[in-house]
Amino acid sequence: MRKILVGVVTLVSLMMPLQASAEDSVSSAEALLHQMDEASRGLSYELSYILIKKNSIEPLRYRHTFEDGETYAHLVYLSGPPREVIQRGSEVSYFEPGLDPFTINSNKMVAPLPPIMKSDIEELAQFYDFISMGRAREAGVACDVVRIAPKDGARYSYLIWIDTRSKLVMRADLLDRDGEPLEQYRAVSYVVNPKVGDVLRSLKTVELPAVVKLPPQPQAELSWHANWLPQGFESVSRNRHRLMMTERPVESKMYSDGLFSFSIYVSSADSFTVREQLVRQGRRTLHSYLLKDKEVTVVGDIPPATARRVAESVAFLSGKANAAGETTP
């Protein structure tokens, strides 16, 4: 009997350090992500990296500084036609070939940067596990590796390499649910230096395109709702419009969890509508589903199985249209 009790006590004593170690790993990973967030928002730095997708490699350069409560940033595409994005405080200007340059009121670039750099870590912690994966070397420097894994398994995950000194992201792999990479951000070189801020301060005097004054868009009341969404996804916009080519009316909603986003489109079926279609290209999934006389399409950065479940959960409201009503598990 005494031997059995001794064995039980020994087993418990062995398990306790393992549990503590796992908790320490989670807290350490979350702390690293907070440090990364502070560094990416507060430092003056220049980062050259490549964005690797299945059929393409794109080189880019990103410069950033923070001064007097304002962000100044400049992203340049280093191959192909000249393209760049400039952020000056709460205004972002876009320069694209074939389009007139324009500026919008925003505090965030729509550009190929690792999304984790501008995400709310506290908010993400509700729906993702942060797991320390040890150390590795990337871009010539030692890095702490952190996995960002969804708690519900209904979306993609990230593997992040964070420079041990600067706390900047040196690499970010977007992984599907089988752990296969869908795309990679990989730093080639970087520098943290106040002189980068000196260069970006010149943006204060640069003449940029006038801010586009968009008319206020009322949040349309729609005739349907989604009965199921992955945990943490919330509606960020909704509208009703007509397709440019066919003039067919479409209702849409966009959802985001702060790291990924997707949209639902609902329109009347026509002779070109197929009963069901599923296409995935890299991180982007398109799932189209015929529901009675309506075509429901889900497009966004979510796995095919998740897109299918969202599409098949769409239900139409009786009587007056009502945009509220999504329920999450």
Automatic annotation (TrEMBL):
Residue ranges of domain MucB/RseB N-terminal in the record: 28-196
Family matches, as InterPro entries: MucB/RseB_C, MucB/RseB_C_sf, MucB/RseB_N, MucB_RseB
Signal sequence region: 1-22
Chain ranges of the MucB/RseB C-terminal domain: 219-314
Gene Ontology molecular-function annotations: antisigma factor binding
Keywords: Periplasm, Signal
Domain of life: Bacteria
A family per Pfam: MucB_RseB_C
Database matches in CDD domains: RseB (cd16327)
Any one of the GO CC terms: outer membrane-bounded periplasmic space
Gene Ontology BP annotations: regulation of polysaccharide biosynthetic process
UniProt main location, coarse: periplasm
Subcellular localization(s) per the UniProt record: Periplasm
Family statement: Belongs to the RseB family.
PANTHER family on file: PTHR38782, SIGMA-E FACTOR REGULATORY PROTEIN RSEB (PTHR38782:SF1)
Protein known as: Sigma-E factor regulatory protein RseB
